[in-house]
TrEMBL record:
Keywords: Metal-binding, Oxidoreductase, Zinc
The organism's taxonomic lineage, starting at the top: Bacteria, Pseudomonadati, Atribacterota, Candidatus Phoenicimicrobiia, Candidatus Pheonicimicrobiales
Official protein name in the record: Galactitol-1-phosphate 5-dehydrogenase
Domain Enoyl reductase (ER) residue range list: 5-317
InterPro entries: ADH-like_C, ADH-like_N, ADH_Zn_CS, ER, GroES-like_sf, NAD(P)-bd_dom_sf, Zn_alcohol_dh
Protein source organism: Candidatus Sediminicultor quintus
Presence of keyword Flavoprotein: no
MF term (GO), any: zinc ion binding
Cofactor: Zn(2+)
PROSITE patterns: ADH_ZINC
Length: 349
């Protein structure tokens, strides 16, 4: 099969590899139909490398089951599926309370074990979810970012009528603005530096967009909110500038959710510390997503809302590319040669 393989940082190519074999009776073999590029994939490929190399990358995917292990009972050949990429240990204290996203000793498709940016992947039955009728392969490959956005917003404890801000309009940001509206926010503000992404956010229902290149972001927010700030702030850019602006733009007793992966140190000035103290802000981290049944299975919920047309992901797809174009595509994203949003590798191209 053809497989996008990372040999070392910035050393990526599509190579011929053996079709993976089912080794455990609880596994299935999937023919991959679509695999998305996560924001974390870009620095992993271009700078940091993976935990193990060489490795087939990719963890946001969908496909069709072509073979099942002998103990697989809930899935069959020809089932259309997606999969949660994290395999929890099931033993640590966090797994014991269902916080699998906080597992101390997890495996992960595409960074610790072979991923899905290939024609085939072997996946454990416990990680699988069947696709609803109205969710196609491309949409299903975006269940991960839909779930990550839902997990972050779940930290906000939204009450109907509250206001919210989203910093950073990558795929997760553009999905987050939809969740915020669905869950009852009356005013949602979206902030980015690319006008094309802000225009898309308007089409998806935000009430105000602010281009951070051309505007004083905090002044614009305070003008719009009558100097109150927003009840909920979701930071998804992972940039030290927006990380500070998230605090600056929150209302008293506001909730600031950090979800964007940070690759730089953040100095927290006394002004922002004082705002956290005097405004009694809630500053909360959000990591990954969960398939635990309570309070909701975020993956099943995400698929359900996509199935009903309430969460729209197709407008977020900016590129559909071949496996063989992997090197050029990752260089394009890393060096920002083009404006992109969700990039999908389609093995059948």
């Amino acid at each position: 099969m053809r497989a996008v393989t990372l040999f070392a940082p910035a050393n990526l190519s599509c190579v011929e590899a053996e079709v993976p074999k089912i080794k455990d009776s609880n596994e299935v073999l999937i023919k991959v139909k679509a695999c998305g590029v996560c924001g974390s994939d870009i620095p992993r490929v271009m700078i940091k490398g993976a935990h193990k190399m060489p490795i087939i990358i990719g963890h946001e995917f969908s496909g069709e089951i072509v073979e099942t292990g002998e103990s697989v009972s809930s899935f069959k050949v020809l089932d259309q599926v997606t999969a949660m990429p994290l395999i929890p240990c099931g033993k640590c204290e966090f797994c014991q309370i269902g916080k699998y996203n906080l597992c101390d000793d997890y495996l992960y498709y595409g960074s610790r074990i072979p991923g899905a940016m290939a024609q085939y992947i072997v996946v454990k039955e416990s990680n699988l979810l069947k696709l609803p009728k109205n969710v196609d392969y491309e949409s299903a490959a975006m269940t991960d970012p839909v779930s990550v956005a839902l997990h972050a917003i779940g930290k906000a404890n939204i009450n109907a009528g509250q206001s919210a801000i989203v910093f950073g309009l990558g795929a997760i940001g553009l999905i987050a603005i939809q969740w915020l509206k669905i869950l009852g926010c009356s005013e949602v503000i979206a902030i980015d530096i690319f006008q094309e992404k802000l225009d898309l956010a308007e089409k998806l229902g935000v009430d105000l967009t602010i281009n951070a290149k051309n505007n004083n972001v905090i002044e614009a927010i305070m003008d719009y909110t009558h100097n109150k700030g927003a009840d909920i702030v979701i930071e998804l850019a992972g940039n030290k500038i927006t990380q500070l602006q998230a605090i600056q733009s929150a209302s008293k007793m506001g909730r600031v959710i950090y979800c964007g992966i940070s690759y730089d140190d953040l100095l927290l000035p006394s002004k922002e510390v004082n705002k956290i103290l005097r405004g009694e802000l809630f500053v909360i981290g959000s990591w990954n997503s969960s398939i635990a049944p309570l309070p909701v299975n975020e993956w099943k919920t995400s698929l359900d809302f996509m199935d009903k047309g309430k969460i729209k992901v197709k407008p977020l797809i900016s590129h559909r590319v071949k496996l063989e174009d992997c090197k050029e595509v990752f260089e394009m994203m890393y060096y920002k040669k083009e404006i992109f949003n969700k990039v999908l590798f389609i093995p059948d191209l």
